[in-house]
């Protein structure tokens, strides 16, 4: 007699018949591909202020298409976004209007790092404006905050099922003690305290699958990382960073692997305010991941044009920049693979 609805998960079987084979367990689907993009220093002054003034939505030019097609894009915004504030005692000071964030968003940039040597060019009042305008525009600003906890905190975004954390920090000495965030004062996340910087990475790792550190560091005009940069990169790698991306030297610097951590020491200038930069070679750094695993890194080469906008290049010019970028790996002391 055949009975249905057997208890205990048993299956009724016809006489003389073997039980039907159970379906083979299906393999879990691989995690989706994630693409991230990073760009170097952005200013709105001189010729690039003119672009902003003409139309914020087109200030970055055609490079916006490259930034918009990825899942998440981050750049270094190297200016105070304020109409006020008090000028700091330094040679170069930059400030720009709130439409700076409109330009950033229109270009496909999802978040900006303020951890650099210009975010407080107009003091803490200027920084307060910079953070307020970012919040009003809906642009996450990392590496700066109302206090140290806020400055060192990561921006965490859910990207195709993976939690991606991005932190911003600076290792530039200029006015660093004056500008550093504290327990009861606003400012920047400074990486001079290596233990605190590494702790910020470890804390981010507890919250996210992927941890990216966007650094402002190095010597202007120097293609090779300093010993301080290498030491800090090693500390971040040991703390669990997926990648460490840098800017500040006005030049491309080497990339490669430090253990399981990808490092690109310098992306150079990007949207650049004047013509006499150290180099007009630049690009958009694209990282590819499968879930938490970094599977690829590639520089989409570009040149800064007479307008200050970075323009993607092809052919011989693209080959030249890519070879130059690859050739910098030697003095960076980085490996070709994990």
Structure description:
This protein has helices at about 45-55, 65-70, 100-105, 125-135, 150, 175-180, 195-205, 225-240, 315-325, 330, and strands at about 35-40, 70-75, 80, 95, 110-115, 140, 145, 155-160, 160-170, 185-190, 210-215, 245, 255-260, 260-265, 270, 280-290, 295-305, 310. The protein is of the alpha/beta class and about 350 residues long. The chain has one domain: Metallo-dependent phosphatases (Purple Acid Phosphatase, chain A, domain 2), CATH 3.60.21. The strands form four sheets. Strands 1, 2, 5, 6, 15, 16, 17 and 18 form an eight-stranded mixed sheet that branches. Strands 8-9-11-12-14-13 form a six-stranded mixed sheet, covered by helices on one side. A two-stranded parallel sheet has the order 3-4. β11, α8 and β12 form a beta-alpha-beta unit. α7 packs parallel to α8. The protein is globular.
């Amino acid at each position: 007699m055949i009975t249905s609805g057997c208890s205990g998960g048993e299956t009724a079987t016809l006489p003389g018949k073997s039980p039907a084979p159970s379906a083979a367990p299906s393999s879990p689907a691989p995690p989706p591909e994630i693409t991230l993009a990073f760009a170097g220093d952005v200013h709105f002054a001189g010729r690039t202020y003119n672009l902003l003034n003409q139309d914020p939505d087109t200030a970055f030019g055609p490079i916006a298409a490259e930034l918009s097609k990825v899942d998440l894009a981050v750049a270094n915004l190297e200016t105070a976004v304020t109409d006020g504030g008090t000028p700091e005692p330094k040679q170069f000071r930059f400030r720009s209007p709130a439409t700076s964030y409109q330009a950033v968003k229109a270009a496909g940039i999802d978040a900006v790092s303020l951890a650099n040597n210009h975010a407080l060019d107009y003091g803490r009042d200027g920084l307060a404006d910079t953070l307020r305008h970012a919040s009003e525009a809906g642009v996450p600003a990392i590496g700066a905050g109302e206090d140290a906890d806020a400055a060192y905190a990561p921006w965490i975004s859910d990207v195709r099922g993976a939690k991606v954390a991005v932190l911003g920090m600076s290792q530039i000495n200029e006015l660093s003690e004056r500008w550093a965030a504290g327990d009861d004062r606003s400012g920047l996340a400074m990486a001079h305290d290596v233990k605190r910087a590494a702790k910020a990475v470890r804390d981010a790792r507890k919250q996210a699958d992927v941890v990216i550190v966007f650094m402002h560091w190095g010597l202007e005009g120097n293609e090779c990382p300093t010993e301080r940069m290498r030491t800090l990169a090693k500390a971040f790698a040991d703390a669990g960073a997926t990648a460490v991306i840098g800017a500040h030297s006005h030049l491309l610097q080497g990339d490669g692997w430090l253990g399981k951590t990808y490092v690109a020491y310098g992306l150079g200038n990007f949207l650049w305010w004047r013509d006499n930069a150290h180099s007009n070679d630049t690009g958009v750094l694209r990282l590819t991941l499968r879930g938490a695993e970094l599977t690829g890194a590639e520089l989409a080469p570009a040149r800064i044009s007479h307008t200050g906008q970075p323009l993607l290049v092809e052919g011989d010019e693209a080959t030249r920049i890519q070879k130059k970028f690859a050739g910098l790996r030697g003095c960076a002391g980085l490996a070709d693979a994990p």
